[in-house]
Amino acid sequence: MPSFALFALPLVLALFHWVGPVPDDLGVRGGHLSPCPGPAHCARVDWTVTDSGAALESLTTLIESTPQAEVISRDDGYLHATFSSRIFGFVDDVELNAADPERLEARSISRLGDSDLGVNGQRLQVLAQALDTQVLSQP
Q1: pLDDT tens digits, residue range 96-108?
Q2: 91, 72 in Cβ contact below 8 A?
Q3: Which of 55, 67, 75, 129 is deepest in the core (most CB within 10 A)?
């Protein structure tokens, strides 16, 4: 019976892997990341940094080494990554934009649900702590 449980558990968990549609407002528009459509399932911050390019590189390395995270694309000062929750596989999209030499924009948005229970804001706090930056504003 234990071998059946080892086989069945991944199948049951796969049934609950809710990915959801990719948000249509991802990317840099007018030089900046999109604002959050609402605070219930999205977080957005601007960080003051010494060098936004170096900060982006540092966070890219961190994200690449994070379990359940995957860098989807990286172009000219912009990064798009996804983070999946461990149990149900909910997917959140994370964007970073080196808006100017001393400012890095960050946005984390859930694909599904009415509330993220603060996960996106916490994720951005973890990234900020990794940079040891000062939050400039929270659009």
Answers
A1: 999 999 999 999 9
A2: no
A3: 55
